[in-house]
Amino acid sequence: MATFLISTMDATGHVTPARAVAKSLADRGHTVLWHGFEPYRDVIESTGARFVAATRTPSFADLPAAPEPGTRGLAAAVSALRRLMVDRMEGQLADYTAIAADTPVDAVLVDLCCLGGRAFHERTGLPWATLGISPLSAPAPDIPQFGSGRQPPRTALGRLANAATWRIGSRLMRGLTDAYADRRAANGLPPLPAGVTAFDHMLSDQLHLQASTPLLEFPRRHWPPSVRLVGPLLPPAPAPGSVALPPWWPQLRQARAVVHVTQGSVATDPELLTRPALEGLADLDALVVVTTPEPDRLGPVPANARVSGFLPHGLLLPEVHVVVTNAGYNGVKAALGAGVPVVMAPWGNDQPDVAARVTRVGAGIDLRRRTPAPRQIAEAVRRALADPELRTAAGRIRAEFATYQGGDAAAAALTELVRPGDPAARH
């Protein structure tokens, strides 16, 4: 058996996909050390992994992944990405080194924002893998630029223009690569090869586990050789009776339709989506179920609304007909994994890209607005409830997701990384 070191940042969207991987590795008899943060200790330990606290790596509370005060435009974007990835690298490298000195490890798996993973690999020579927590954005002429929300180009001319857009984007983000190169030099790592950017180092060239399936990824003429599509990596539904449910729960099955409204765990300001949705859906003959970290912040809600701080998707979504979301990757996959179409108001970051992939398959409606009007939300929800093609497309994704068993494909690929050619690694 092998010892794996997993590392994730302290955000639900980073931790959730790693849960299934850690559990599958532990179930196979491997030792799993999980470098993480205290708020996620219980989640981490529930997988069978051993929690190892981050001591030198800044948390998001210590170092917010937000633009530095006073920066605007491109400078703000560069500073936010630098704080997210580059400024944490040194602490990650120090933590991984200390962990491995105490308990020798055979390989490391990091979420793709942890640049310390590559640094640790370069310093030790240990196998390393990355975990895709957002749509695969490895540059290619036939893949739209990250964050654009566009569909793939359909013509040779379009692919040429798209390739040029990628090159321009890399030049505009040169400040991030320069900061990364400086931090590497300060830690005794070799200079970056000519033309290589910080973004190129986010994906392992040995093994990248993309938490997705073919239907939810854009087709590519040439896939990066290290990429493996390993399924949605969604957490299992809790056992019935293991979670306290609100007293109105039986109303879900009594309602003509159920609409779930969620903004995920990052952009949670209710003014962005939740309040407009509640207003727009107030007259809909449906039960509107809202989850939000601060329920009291909403104040009075329409008579058809029910509000909760948290509800397990594994129990809620089978009762839902439409999900209204800001297109967070894990939340959208959870909805589609239950065969539920989505109405999306992408907030930013990778969310426009999530929405573009969903609309390409026909399983959702992209409002293409960060804060849509109540009327726009209501019209989209009514269409989603009435259009059987949306539910059929969502059902195709659910069926494809079902062919992947938890984190088994990821665990098999990681075991093969440590023991290449060993037939037992595939089982």
TrEMBL record:
Pfam families from the UniProt entry: EryCIII-like_C
CDD domains assigned: GT1_Gtf-like (cd03784)
The name this protein goes by in its record: Glycosyltransferase
Domain spans labelled Erythromycin biosynthesis protein CIII-like C-terminal: 278-403
